[in-house]
């Protein structure tokens, strides 16, 4: 399951006013100017819009809803069709872009030099205007005196998902329309409404899977595509073996780090992980701690499933910073200090807003082939990681969205130029996904980035490999009618690496102390 960190932004009231005055015919749209302000006070002008589409294209009596988009006109206007717009598709499902982030603004300015850039939100996203203010799942609180188990996680997930579906169905939302096919056709209809014949696809994580789905249905409208954090159509469910392999790549770096060596047992970081899991399976730990802002201690019992839920949640200010803390987090537990695990488990079990409702609705509509599902369940690494696809396994039989068939999920030959980029420390979409996708591209190239995490283009690539990013950005500008894609791809490396991570040792302050200090802010 994708565990991306979702970015928030404030919806301007002017868009709501414009939408109320706008025509509601399917295929019509409304646009209004907006200005976002960065933390340093920098102003960035964008256009926000709503395009009106059927809520459920399978229902001839469907109501009309609005899907949000952002448009950035090209800085240099072109009168020909050689510069089709770039359509940016976010991940999640349920992620959004923070247009006030100056790093993103710089990326967008590079992209829009000769092309319009269109950012398309997902219908029903609680973080964007267009349908509702809070189309999401609210998790129930869980008991603190017993560890999480696979059974308790399943019961809680199904309870929350069922309650959310009932709530929004009662309000008139046709949840059957929040599937992969309808969001693909939202992009197709927006393209047509804005008057573009062809588009360039740009997506990371689920955005890449959304792009593959669009390519499956509407390939004749796509000029080229750049995909990262790659997820082929049958790869929404993650592989325990590939996730474990990515963790082993990080552990290999950590085992060689002089800061950590003296703290590691024989077998290194992965042996630490196996040992902690085995201990918590045999005997869950009860931990007392004082949360920030509280006057009474909390006592919570944590076990192996709690650790599995927290395994990709080490503290840090960025994805790479989290990786530098991951061995330290495990070593503290190896030494018997479970306070950070207890704190994160307490947060998780406190209830409240969980995932956007569209995450299971859309992902379960894409699903997985039975053959691949069986293969993943049989991978021996699941002994340590558990069912990393439990969110889907626990909800797919109660999901109302229609499911695509195996023919839709199957690989097929893509003829247009496709650029793939992926990090080998990407724990959400392991690099093996991208290696698999490269095999069915007629004009494709994969750049493997050693040490890179999930969706690396902002902020990692600009900071660590700016020259490579400049070469990658040329993908938007090359006229493939004059320069074959294979010639351009020859200018790109097949693999590059970031600088080696500098790991933090298990010394004061602890990960718990850092969590408590940051929670106060």
Low-confidence stretches: 1-23
User: What is the CA–CA distance across the termini?
Assistant: 29 Å
* CATH T-level topology of the domain at 19-131 and 177-236 and 411-497: Rossmann fold
**Helical coverage, percent range:** 25-40%
Which strand order do you get reading across the main beta sheet? Answer: 1-2-3-5-4-7-8-12-13-14
CATH superfamily of the domain at 19-131 and 177-236 and 411-497: Alpha/Beta hydrolase fold, catalytic domain
What proportion strand? 15-25%
Total helical segments: 21
Report the biggest beta sheet as strand number plus sense, adding barrel if it closes: 10 strands, mixed
The second-level CATH architecture of the domain at 19-131 and 177-236 and 411-497 is 3-Layer(aba) Sandwich
Mean pLDDT: 92
Using the alpha-carbon principal axes, give the shape: globular
- Judged by helices, strands and strand pairing, the structural class is alpha/beta
In the CATH scheme, the class of the domain at 19-131 and 177-236 and 411-497 would be Alpha Beta
Explain the overall architecture:
- This protein is α/β, with parallel strands linked by helices.
- It has a domain at 19-131 and 177-236 and 411-497: Rossmann fold.
- 39% of the residues lie in helices and 18% in strands.
- The chain is built from 21 helices and 14 strands.
- It has helices spanning 13-21, 102-111, 150-170, 180-194, 206-217, 240-255, 258-261, 268-282, 304-310, 319-334, 339-349, 358-366, 370-377, 382-385, 390-395, 406-409, 431-438, 460-464, 466-473, 485-489, 511-520, and strands at 29-37, 43-54, 64-72, 86-89, 117-120, 136-139, 199-204, 222-228, 285-289, 298-302, 352-356, 414-423, 441-450, 495-497.
- The strands form 3 sheets. Strands 1-2-3-5-4-7-8-12-13-14 form a 10-stranded mixed sheet, sandwiched between helices. The chain has a two-stranded antiparallel sheet with strand order 6-11. Strands 9-10 form a two-stranded antiparallel sheet.
- Strand 1 (29-37) and strand 2 (43-54) form a beta hairpin.
- Helix 4 (180-194) packs across helix 5 (206-217), helix 8 crosses helix 9 and helix 8 crosses helix 10.
- The longest helix is centred in the first third of the chain and has 21 residues, at 150-170.
């Amino acid at each position: 399951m994708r565990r991306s960190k979702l970015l928030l932004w404030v919806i301007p009231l002017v868009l709501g006013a414009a939408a109320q005055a706008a025509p509601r015919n399917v295929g019509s749209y409304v646009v209004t100017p907006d200005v976002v302000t960065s933390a340093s006070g920098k102003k960035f002008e964008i256009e926000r819009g709503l395009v009106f589409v059927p809520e459920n294209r399978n229902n001839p009596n469907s109501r009309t809803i609005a899907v949000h988009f952002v448009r950035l006109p090209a800085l240099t206007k072109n009168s020909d069709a050689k510069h089709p717009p770039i359509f940016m598709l976010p991940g999640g499902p349920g992620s959004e872009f923070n247009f006030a982030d100056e790093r993103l603004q710089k990326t967008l300015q590079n992209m829009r030099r000769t092309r319009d850039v269109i950012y398309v939100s997902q219908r029903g996203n609680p973080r964007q205007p267009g349908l509702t203010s809070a189309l999401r799942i609210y998790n129930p609180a869980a008991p603190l005196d017993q560890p999480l188990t696979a059974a308790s996680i399943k019961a809680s997930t199904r309870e929350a998902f069922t309650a959310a579906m009932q709530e929004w169905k009662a309000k008139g939302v046709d949840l059957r329309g929040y599937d992969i096919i309808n969001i693909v056709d939202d992009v197709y209809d927006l393209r047509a409404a804005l008057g573009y014949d062809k588009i360039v696809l740009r997506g990371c994580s689920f955005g890449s899977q959304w792009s593959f789905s669009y390519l499956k249905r509407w390939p004749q409208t796509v000029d080229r595509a750049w995909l990262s954090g790659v997820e082929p159509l049958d790869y929404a469910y993650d592989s325990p073996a590939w996730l474990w392999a990515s963790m082993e790549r990080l552990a290999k770096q950590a085992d060689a780090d002089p800061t950590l060596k003296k703290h590691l047992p024989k077998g290194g970081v992965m042996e630490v992980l196996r040992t902690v899991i085995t201990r918590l399976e045999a005997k869950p730990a009860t931990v007392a701690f004082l949360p920030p802002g509280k006057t009474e201690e909390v006592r919570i019992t944590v076990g192996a499933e709690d650790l599995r839920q927290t395994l990709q949640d080490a503290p840090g200010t960025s994805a790479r910073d989290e990786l530098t803390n991951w061995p330290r987090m495990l070593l503290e537990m190896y030494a018997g200090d479970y306070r950070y695990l207890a704190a994160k488990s307490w947060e998780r079990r406190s209830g409240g807003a969980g995932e956007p409702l569209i995450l299971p609705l859309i992902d379960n509509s894409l699903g997985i082939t039975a053959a691949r599902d069986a293969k993943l369940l049989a991978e021996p690494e699941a002994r340590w990681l558990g069912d990393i696809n439990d969110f889907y396994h626990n909800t797919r039989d109660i999901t109302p969205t229609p499911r695509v068939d195996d023919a839709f999920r199957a690989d097929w030959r893509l003829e247009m130029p496709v650029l793939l980029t992926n990090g080998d420390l990407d724990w959400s979409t392991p690099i093996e996904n991208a290696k698999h996708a490269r095999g069915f591209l007629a004009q494709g190239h994969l750049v493997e980035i050693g040490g890179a995490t999930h969706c690396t283009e902002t902020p990692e690539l600009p900071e660590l490999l700016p020259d490579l990013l400049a070469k990658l950005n040329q993908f938007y500008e090359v006229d493939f009618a004059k320069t074959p894609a294979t010639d351009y791809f020859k200018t790109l490396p097949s693999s590059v690496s970031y600088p080696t991570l500098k790991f933090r040792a298990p010394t004061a302050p602890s990960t718990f102390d850092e969590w408590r200090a940051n929670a106060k802010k």
